[in-house]
Amino acid sequence: MSLAFCGNENNSVAYNVDGGVLNNGCFLDALNVVPHVFLLFITFPILFIGWGSQSSKVHIHHSTWLHFPGHNLRWLLTFVLLFILVCEIAEGIVSDGFSQSLHLHLYMPAGLAFMAGITSIIYYHNIETSNFPKLLLALLIYWVLAFIMKTIKFAKYTEHGIGPRQLRYCITGLLVLLYGLLLAVEINVILGRRYVCFADPPEVKPPEDLQDLGVRFLQPFVNLLSKATYWWMNTFITSAHRRPIDLKVIGKLPIAMRALTNYIKLRKAFDDQKDTAPQGPKLIWQALRKAFGRPLILSITFRFLADLLGFAGPLCISGIVHHISKDNRTIQQPMTLLGIYFISSKEFLENAYVLAVLLFLALLLQRTFLQASYYVAIETGINLRGAIQTKIYNKIMRLCTSNMSMGELTVAQICNLVAIDTNQLMWFFFLCPNLWAMPVQIIVGVILLYYLLGISALIGATVIAVLAPVQYFVATKLSQTQKSTLEYSSERLKKTNELLRGIKLLKLYAWEHIFCDSVEETRSKELTSLKAFALYSSISIFMNAAIPIAAVLTTFVVHVHISEDADLSPAVAFASLSLFHILVTPLFLLSSVVRSTVKALVSSGYFTWTDGPPTLSNVDIKIPIGKLTMIVGQVGCGKSSLLLAALGEMQKVSGTVTWNRSVTSSVFCLPTDRDAAADGDIRKRGAVAYASQKPWLLNATLVENITFEMGRVPRAFMDESFLFVIKSCSDIFFHIFSRGQKQRISVARALYQQTNLVFLDDPFSALDIHLSDHLMQDGILKLLREEKRTVVLVTHKLQYLLHADWIIAMKDGTIQTEGTLKDIQNSEPELFEQWKTLMHRQDQEFETVINDLERKNLRRAMYSREAARTEEDEEEESVESDDDDNMSQVMRQRATIPWRSCGIYLSSAGLLLLTVLLLSQLLKHSLMVAIDYWLAHWTSHVIRAKTDAIARNCTIVQYCGFSHSWYLSVFSVLCCLGIILCLATSVAVEWTGLKVAKELHHDLLNKIILAPMRLFETTPLGSILNRFSTDTNTIDQHIPTTLECLSRSTLLCVSALGVISYVTPVFLIALLPLAVTCYFIQKYFRVASRDLQQLEDSTQLPLLSHFSETVEGLTTIRALRYEPRFRQRLLQFTDANNIASLFLTAANRWLEVRMEYIGACVVLVAAVASITNSLYNQLSTGLVGLGLTYALMVSNYMNWMVRNLADMEVQLGSVKRINGLLKTEPENYEGLLTVSQVPDGWPRQGEIKIQNLSVRYDATLKPVLKNVNAHISPGQKVGICGRTGSGKSSFSLAFFRMVDMFEGRIVIDDIDIAKLPLQTLRSRLSIILQDPILFSGTIRFNLDPEMKATDEMLWEALDIAQLKPVVKSLPGGLDAAVTEGGENFSQGQRQLFCLARAFVRKSSILIMDEATASIDMATESILQKVVMTAFADRTVVIIAHRVHTILNADLVIVMKRGIILEYDRPEALLDKEDSVFTSFVRADK
After folding, report:
1. Other CB atoms closer than 10 Å to residue 759's CB: what's the count?
2. Of 112-121, 259-268, 718-727, 1268-1277, where does mean pLDDT reach its minimum?
3. pLDDT (0 to 100) of residue 950
4. Strands, E, within 608-725: which ranges?
5. Residue of 253, 350, 295, 264 lying closest to 571 (CA atoms)
6. Which residues pair with 621 in a beta bridge?
7. What share of the chain is helix, strand, coil (3-state, %, to 5)?
């Protein structure tokens, strides 16, 4: 055995001990085995048996508590130790290759040391996480023994004259140093924590994060190996396959990463920099650098190391190919000392197998550093984003609302600031390491190319450098085109939004195609911009693929022609090829980095504010304590402004607002001061319950909206005051919220808050009389007055002035009068008489409790809405979550790629384009392989020619008959064809994407406008709009790019593996386990990645929503002094979004590290197999170079393939969702009669016969009208009244076939409307709806979108509607602008425009569906007058909201639960004391 250990040559002196055992090299090596055997024998039982339960002092959820001093240093030293030991093993094997027999002592001790090194770190890790420090004694003994043994060995080497020229001497010296340092680390742990030999070691507690069971993001807490490989993510990634990832699964952020922590850090940095830097972007950048600069430097360092290690690939390929291409592979015998062989480092590095192993280790390190750099940069960016968002939110909380009301800061601007600008800063931090590392990478790359190829390398590099600005130009153009596309997209979305919001009106007026054409027109402009985007994208893709080919071609052409005896060996050629691939990346990334830097600089800008116009003047009032004060006056007189000024929400020039408990004493003046909220008294005031005129609700539950107790809802339900408030506000549960219901919730919130002061700004505006009375009696008079709370009520309901303790009348921004009602009656008799007249004209509406039928329908509608929110295809995701079998089926479906959606996408492109795309891709990649194969063939012949030249004593290869010309010509032709095909494929991909985008949007739009109203009633508008916005944008811009990347990376990966397998068929054996590993990695990753991407998107929406909600409700929040609650809510949303982003980042790194390591294994296997095949089977060196070059790129290809596959899977969800809408059944637009068969003037008379009519909204729902019969004579005015849910509106919709008329018929002027084409029917009738709808554009367009009416007709209609003076006063007259929703006109004016629109059409039948429900009495009076005069000769059907509006009708129909209860003239019905109509009128009086 000893002979085998020390060798068995006859002349060997390896086991000669005449000079003493320590002077024998073999014995020295045997002595070094002792420490390693000791450690393995001591630790293995402990590791395998375990050490019982954990210390009772430690209670933590995760076994990641790393608390020993010098923890990271120990891991780093251990990694270095293992690397040195691998080198020692390799050195021993290479040295042993020169002897005739095996000398195990040269590498076996190193092998045992390697095992002991791994065991030591595993042993240490388990001791640390389990907190058993006394077991460190074993490691202490091991380090002492190892240090002593290595020191003895090193001393003996020095004594015998062995020096730094021998590699083993250097390795031994390094090992002495490492063992010494590890011993020092161990002693530091023992002394620092008083472990092992000390009686009372100090108690150390785990960090707070590890004691929190909710913290599951462990990257900051795990050891270096787990940090580098994301090992802790294994369980998380694999569990996603069994259970979808949600916020509960990912848990909470660690404290150091939370938005609040980073905000405090940023604020401190800002405060420190304020004295040194001026206000503006410079201050922001300096503060960001101070707060987040340190981790960024770490990321840059990692990037430098990764980039430098990246050059090991080309250099090792050059060395390997150079080594195996040598004719004389014999190396000079190494020197023998102490009876053993010693080799130099030069001899060591000339071994091809050694280079293969070093290449493998270099790749592992390079990929680890690269991913660490990415992670640190992105984590820093995410932390920065959270801090900036919190800072913006705090700034918003202090903004003056008058600036926002003046349009100087919109909700959209704030959302852009939060969603886009903060992300720009985050991505700048991610790309920042590139900014520093790329110049170094370029310089080193060019130097190495020059070393290999000489001056020709500089020419090739110049080609890349010259074309890089072109790439930057293209990238800039892409950015500009994208901006242009975005503008058209915004315009299209605005039009689509208007179309969807007004779809009911458009269908009723048969205008859907007009608006559809308008959207299509904008879409065509957008597509033109998208064509330019596609063109620049294809050029960018083309240049990315073509520039390396052009650079290589130029370089080799110059290299061959510049020298008669040019060295174009495989070693030079393929090393150069790899270097060019490395060099191209930073030059192309430079454009992205520069663009990102510019965007980040723009994003760090800041707002400025201007002053608003005056609103109030000469205001001097006092509000009595514990009384009800009412503020009245005309629209626009400053009532709301008075409340806002009292709350400090308006800017003021002079005067004061004094708060004395519940007292407000104030003098309000012109608002021009910059910060009214800074007024001392206002700041000192307590909370004020405030209900604004425009109801403001949170995107939360009803209870949370009333109580503002986020996360504490159960207590609220048990609260008596909560239940009383709900009762006071008339049972607001189980409703799909209308404006009136929103108003009631807003008032309920004000009533619920326990404040001494309550401000109610026109709370009755959207309520009917019944609800108004209920709220006044139970809410204000009973609840608030009984509690002696001070109430300030702004109202138009003058009948309630009788209940006021104090009245303030306003006019034109000043106080007209104030006092009790009796005081005003005496001091202002004219005003009092005016009020008295208006009081008697108030009426009552009969909306009470929702009947059972409507409740069922509403609940069903709500259920339908919830069902429609599901974004996944029913066929793939319609399963019950609580059924285990079905759940597992869902899990399987989540793991499969949505091939059906992919098929839908590709089939939309058409067969021809698809064929071109497929063929061009296959040809391009075949040609890429052919180019590299020809290079291998060419360079192999160069080597053979050189060998022949040496044999024939030729000084120059060309003189021996070899010429580069033929090879160069073929190479040039192949490269040119490759460049052409690069262009063809890039154009094909982009044009395919463009064709699909065009087809899918066109089909979707046309399907939506023809869809029945039921779709819009059961599907949230936002959900449909998302199909036109987010999903369309994904199909327009993202899928083509992802498809190109996916197809390219897949084909590159397949071709690379194919080439390696062709060069070394034995690689196929290793490929199988690697392929299986890859399959499982991508399988688990895709599911987790998709969930995390969706989670990141879904957590961003509440964050943006919270910002917009805060801006809209800023006054209410500040009035109630609830800023801390909302800040806390923001921190929750920010942290939720950030932790989803962090987990997604960690998951991406998890994938990339594993793919990179598999790629390194591919390189190792390919290298070893190629070297062996070349040395023993005479494989050509050119093919070895080819195989290794391809192997080097495999990891990148695999990474991109899996990442793009995951992205494509998410993006195809857009196709799936759009396809779901495309399956909608359209309305039946055809009729039994053709358009030509319908008389031109129909209906001329306006006679309506309703015969046995039954109507329902859907085949699955109960009828809403049952067996209705009625006859309306031409020109009659018919009033229809009844309680809510009685079927009034369904009656009106039946005329337009908007509902399912499954029985009976409606005959208008002797034509059954069911036989008419739908477009024709709707175009011949007119309707005015309860909610007035105007569209953005001009007044002319709103009155007559079909552009059929003359100016005279339009002015006549406006005159009849009493709008002519208003329109004439506007710039442009009929062509004056109307903003979206008609917001630049009052509610009453909008309703009058709708009346004018109906008159323009000149239909003989007009339906008014509760048209006066939401307008004031003055406007209602105008409407009644117009209907009775201008529409005197037309049939008018009035759905009555206010009973007095139909007292002058020719006929009254009273409905109840879908049937006609009463049907007669109003006079006849009023004569009957017991008639329902009489009871309605009596109640009204």
Report:
1. 29
2. 718-727
3. 66
4. 619-623, 628-633, 657-660, 663-668, 688-691
5. 350
6. 666
7. 65, 10, 25
Other CB atoms within 10 A of residue 784 CB = 21
Residue type, 1073: P
At residue 1348, φ and ψ (nearest 5 deg) are -100, -25
Q: What is the pLDDT of residue 1444?
A: 75
pLDDT in tens, 1147-1205: 999 999 998 999 899 999 999 998 888 888 778 888 888 888 888 888 888 888 888 88
Give me the phi and psi of 1279, to 5 degrees please: -105, 135
What length does the chain have?
1485
Cβ atoms 710, 700 nearer than 8 A: yes
Cα–Cα distance, 703 to 719 (Å, whole number) = 11
Provide the 8-state DSSP code for 622: E
Peptide bond into 1243 cis (omega under 30): yes
pLDDT value of position 1035: 87
**Run of H or E including 819:** strand 814-819
692-709: average pLDDT: 79
CA angle 960, 966, 970 (to 5 degrees): 150
Following CA atoms 1239, 1241, 1242, 1243 in sequence, which dihedral angle do they give, to the nearest 10 degrees?
-160
Tokens representing 40 are 């393995």
pLDDT at 21: 65
β-pairing verdict for 628-633 and 335-337 = unpaired
Structure tokens at 188: 């530091």
> Can you give the pLDDT at residue 543?
82
Domain residue limits, the chain: 2-215, 619-840
Dihedral sign for Cα atoms in the order 1265, 1270, 1275, 1276: negative
Whole-angstrom Cα distance, residue 1270 to residue 1288? 14
Assign 1419 a pLDDT band (cuts: 50, 70, 90): low
Copy the structure tokens of residue 1190.
Answer: 């391809």
pLDDT digits (tens, 9 = 90+) for 383-409: 999 998 898 888 888 877 655 554 455
- Give CA–CA dist 1339/1376, Å, rounded: 6
Task: Evaluate whether 1078 touches 1050 at the Cβ level (below 8 Å).
Answer: no
Kind of pairing between the strands at 657-660 and 628-633? unpaired
Is 917:992 a contact under the CB 8 Å cutoff?
A: yes
How confident is the model over 1039-1058, as a mean pLDDT? 87
DSSP codes, 1233-1287: S-GGGS-TT-SSS--EEEEEEEEESSTTS--SEEEEEEEE-TT-EEEEEESTTSS
Percent of the chain with pLDDT over 90: 14
Q: 549, 584, 592, 555: which is closest to 572 by C-alpha?
A: 555
pLDDT digits (tens, 9 = 90+) for 606-657: 333 334 455 677 777 888 888 889 998 876 677 878 888 888 777 666 667 7
pLDDT at 118 over 90: yes
Contact 296, 432 (CB under 8 A): yes
Specify the pairing of strand 663-668 against strand 657-660: antiparallel
Query: The domain 619-840 is classified under which CATH number: 3.20.20.70, 3.40.50.300, 1.10.10.10, 1.10.540.10?
Result: 3.40.50.300
Look at the block and give the residue holding tokens 């795990």.
222
Distance CA 771, CA 743 (A): 11
| Alpha helices, H only, 802-910 | 821-827, 829-840, 852-869, 874-877, 884-895, 899-907
Alpha helices in 812-851 (DSSP H): 821-827, 829-840
Cβ atoms of residues 689 and 759 within 8 Å:
yes
Average pLDDT over residues 259-286: 82
Show the DSSP H helices in 1273-1335 as ranges: 1288-1294, 1318-1323
Residue type, 1213: G
Give the DSSP per-residue string, 507-526.
HHTT-HHHHHHHHHHHHHHH
Report the run of H or E that residue 78 belongs to, with start and end. Answer: helix 71-96
Closest C-alpha to 461, from 477, 445, 472: 445
Cβ atoms of 120 and 152 closer than 8 Å: no
